[in-house]
# Entry
Amino acid sequence: MKVLRKREVEVKKARIGDQITIQLVGFGEFTATAQKITDRGPLFMFDDYVASRPMNAKPTNKGGFEKSDLNKWMSDVLLPSFPEAMQGKIENLTIPTYGQMFGHDDWYNDVMEPDDDERFPLMVKRMNRVADFNNNYKWGWLQNATKKKVSTAYFADVTNFGTATYGTASDSLGVRPVFVLRYALIPDDGYVHVIG
# Structure
């Protein structure tokens, strides 16, 4: 009988599809998958949502994701929950953009504030866009605000079916972190520990 078995291995450089396990203090243990290899290091995205949070306390997208309550929460609360040895190696802790999840299409061009991101190769499969929170498939936030002609209260999101839509900024949706793990600072033994 042939089986495909995952096991932990040490590698010098990560590649797309490699998974790492991260224990977030106060949140639990999660896996994150390398979605892209950058010149700074691999870009990982969590496989599931780590929390359910509003984008903003009020229903507004003023200032976009950069000025949002969620972005501040990720910096002030989520980043410190990462293992201490990893915190200084994390760059650009954020959430995905519409482009990273779906690419750019006519609906995006008409409705969303633009981004310059290419679609993650693994996000072509809808099942990879679907994420779980507390054993339930959930809707999750994306960075893009809707254009003013659509609404000043909405941000893009991914539905529990892996499709694109938008929701009111004050709704609580899933938070699926994305970050670069810098090569120059990957861990002390010089290896990325991956499941693969």
